[in-house]
Each structure stands twice: as structure tokens, then as C-alpha cells.
Specification:
- By secondary structure, this protein is of the alpha+beta class.
- The chain has two domains: 66 residues; 92 residues, no CATH class.
- The protein is built from four helices and ten strands.
- Strand 8 and strand 9 form a beta hairpin.
- It starts with 5 loop residues before the first helix and ends in a 6-residue tail after the last strand.
- The relative contact order is 0.13.
- This is PepSY domain-containing protein.
- Keywords: Membrane, Transmembrane, Transmembrane helix.
- It comes from Streptomyces caeni.
Length: 216
């Protein structure tokens, strides 16, 4: 029997294994489905991880609103608050009931994707670990008032000039604006099961914001 030279075929073996792993990961992401009925509908996605759209140049808050809105429609969601930072745009996505569903980032080139951090790792409806797959389950133990206290305690220890605004609830966590006086400086999130704090370091300097017109 002929023995293949190990040194010659090792790179090819490594390449085959890598390609197989990539295909498996793509199947896991795309296999979660597209759906247009929200997180509990008959064709609901288990996760938004890997979901990206490209909507064209974004130069204003209105542009970011429209780009996020086209992304949101894929999950029967709509846009709430939109914020502009020096590193790009942020938008919260709301469910048909007006409650927070998840958060997305919109870059100036028009790419829309789930936000880094809590929206990916803590969101029990649209994140990497939806409820029933190892993420928090049952009733959250951290209420909104306690989330503010936790956020303020963290800020006193790490950003002593700042304090937290009112929380916005998302599945599995809260997101709160950070304030200097009454002016927004950024955001942080508090896990509603563990009380862990995740400061949003990726936004840059806050520039402006808008809420969606009433009734939309």
C-alpha cells in the first residue's frame, strides 16, 4: 500500500477541515430562519446573529432611521430611538407591542447589523443564546429600579462623573443612557438575570438623537 507523504498533504487536510467548519457555522446561522412574524411567530428566527443588510450611504439620523427600518421589517419590528455617535449610528428596534426587542448599529456605509455586546450575548429572543438554549430563562430577577441602582454603582466606581438615566428593557437585559448632568454621553447595559454590567465602549462621542414620530 502506498503511504502519502505527510508533509505534502497536511496543509490540504487543514484547509478541508477549515472549510467544513465554515460551512457548518453558516448552516447554523442561516438555519435559524428569516421569518416575518416576530420572535414567537410560525417562521420566527431563533437569532439575528449573522444578519446584515447593506442599505447605501447613511449621512443623517433620518438616513439611519430608514436603513434600520428596512432591517427591522424582516422581523416584523419597527424603529424607536435613533442615535448618532462619532463612530456611527445606533437604533433600538421595538416589537409590535412597542416593547424593546433588540438594538442595531448602522455604519456610514449603510451596513446594519445587531449591536455588539448585550444585543448579541444577552438577548434571549434575538441573540446568540435565545431562551431555552442556555441563556437566562424564567422571570428576570433584576427589576428596572434595581438596574438603575446597579448602573449608578458601576458608574461611581468606573466613570465617577456620570450617572444612569431610565432603563429601556430588552429581552434579558436593560440598556440605559449614561449622563453627565442632563446630557447624554453614551450607554451601558445591565443583565436582568445576573446584574452584570456591560459598558458600550464602541460608540464614540455622542452627537445627537431622534425618536420615531408618534404612531409609527
Amino acid at each position: 500500500m502506498t503511504a502519502w507523504p505527510r508533509g505534502r498533504w497536511l496543509p490540504l487536510t487543514v484547509l478541508v477541515v477549515a472549510v467544513a467548519a465554515l460551512i457548518a457555522s453558516l448552516v447554523w446561522v442561516t438555519g435559524s430562519g428569516g421569518g416575518h412574524h416576530g420572535p414567537r411567530g410560525p417562521y420566527a428566527p431563533r437569532t439575528m446573529v449573522g444578519a446584515v443588510t447593506h442599505e447605501g450611504p447613511v449621512r443623517t439620523l433620518a438616513d439611519a432611521d430608514r436603513a434600520a427600518g428596512r432591517f427591522a421589517e424582516r422581523w416584523n419590528l419597527h424603529v424607536g430611538e435613533v442615535m448618532q455617535f462619532s463612530n456611527g449610528y445606533y437604533a433600538e428596534l421595538l416589537g409590535p407591542d412597542g416593547k424593546g426587542a433588540t438594538e442595531v448599529l448602522v455604519d456610514p456605509g449603510g451596513t446594519v447589523r445587531p449591536e455588539f455586546g448585550p444585543a448579541m450575548m444577552w438577548n434571549t429572543a434575538y441573540g446568540m443564546m435565545p431562551a431555552g438554549a442556555g441563556a437566562g430563562t424564567g422571570t428576570p430577577v433584576i427589576g428596572a429600579d434595581r438596574a438603575v441602582r446597579i448602573a449608578d454603582q458601576w458608574l461611581r466606581e468606573h466613570r465617577p462623573a456620570l450617572h444612569a438615566a431610565e432603563p429601556e428593557a430588552f429581552p434579558g437585559y436593560y440598556t440605559l443612557h449614561t449622563l453627565r448632568g442632563d446630557r447624554i454621553t453614551g450607554m451601558l447595559s445591565v443583565n436582568s438575570y445576573t446584574g452584570a454590567v456591560w459598558y458600550h465602549t464602541w460608540h464614540g462621542r455622542f452627537l445627537g438623537m431622534q425618536d420615531h414620530p408618534a404612531g409609527r
